Amino acid sequence: MTVLKSNHILIQFLVLLTFVNQPLAQGQNFPWPEGKKMALSLSFDDARASNTRLGIPLLDEYDIKATFFVHPASVEKDLSNWKKAVANGHEIGNHSILHPCSGNFAWSRERALENYTMDKMRAELVQASNEIEKLLGVVPQVYAYPCGQKFVGKGIHTQSLVPLISEMFLAGRGWMDEAPSDPIYADLAQLTGMEMDQLEFEEILPLIESASKNGQWLVLAGHDMDHSGDQTTRLSMLKKLSEYANDPNNGIWMAPIGTIAKYVYETRSSIADTMNIPQLVRPSKDGQLQLTAENGRGKGPAIKYMPEWKSFGWFTSNDSVLWEVDVPMDGTYEVWLDWSVSDEEAGKEFVLTAGKEKLLGIVEKSGSWETFQKKSIGTIKLKKGYEKVIFKSNEAFEEDGAILDLREIILIKKN
Predict the structure, then answer these.
(1) Is the dihedral of CA 340, 344, 345, 347 positive or negative?
(2) pTM exceeds cut of 0.85
(3) 91-121 pLDDT, tens per residue?
(4) Least crowded by CB within 10 Å, which of 125, 231, 317, 379?
(5) Residue 91's closest CA among 237, 252, 261, 247?
(6) Cβ atoms within 10 A of the Cβ of 68, count?
(7) 355 close to 346: Cβ distance less than 8 angstroms
(8) Beta strands in 279-363 (DSSP E)
């Protein structure tokens, strides 16, 4: 291996060390504000009377802002106090008009999700947001799925609500989920909501400690806020949690769901092309399939994603990159390669496979490891639907050799 390539590897190794945290995407650590270890949001459903009577005054004592998912009719019954909650910085979210859940709950039969259509749900959510704006002067940016259920219809007519919530809101929260949200990977339209009703602080603390260790976002969900009762978040627990979260030594960023969701969205957008998060490649608006290093899965003993170069680096002939691809239609696709390689290492044979199809070629010179080139390398036939595309060396080379640094493969359907 050349000295230049060795220096290149050293630089990438040092960069990668700054991102080490195994629970997150490919060893990368999400940058919470001010070096915080995790994020924590408190949320409460249904605009229950105890929220304004007991819960919000307690949170205000500790300057903690929460998210309240409300029904307009419930807000209207205690309008002055809900206006005060908004003035004090608490977030108001949409929780529908009728609180529709599955008809498996006898009390929900007259508003069963199985009898909803997407148009009916959209109309109800628009109505809820409009009424909340008229009452409180705020437009809800976040939504909580009633009963945590994310569907309408039944059987073959079932449809997911997630695309609609993604379109209408910044974030959507579930209910009675099993784990905190990974800020790098989580779908903001279906954030996990973990129950805090009836729990003591000592029962919630392990969740906080785990989220802190893994750099996650813990969204706690409750209903009433009182000393005891069914579907009630205990005030004694909230007091201990507030004191713990306000201790700067614990490294917790505590804020409403919308505040954190906006930060997560903007941060992910700004660093998206420096993170390797293997995921399904879908066609772009113009029909191209962009197989970037960021969305490929490195496989092999030594292959590395190098964020500074936004590429994969090969270090053994047994390394490869696999992409899962949603091919839009049958046809012949022109293959464009975006790569770099030193003159000394150029000239090795590669193979690109998709199903039974193969494309062979030779890695041409790009000028240097730091000089990337983009060039058409041939065509390959693809079938419509799910496909795996694999790029690898087609010849063995010594352990101190290399084949190329791969930034992107673009597949463009030929007319």
Answers:
(1) positive
(2) yes
(3) 999 999 999 999 999 999 999 999 999 999 9
(4) 231
(5) 261
(6) 27
(7) no
(8) 289-292, 297-299, 304-306, 311-313, 320-327, 331-340, 349-354, 357-362
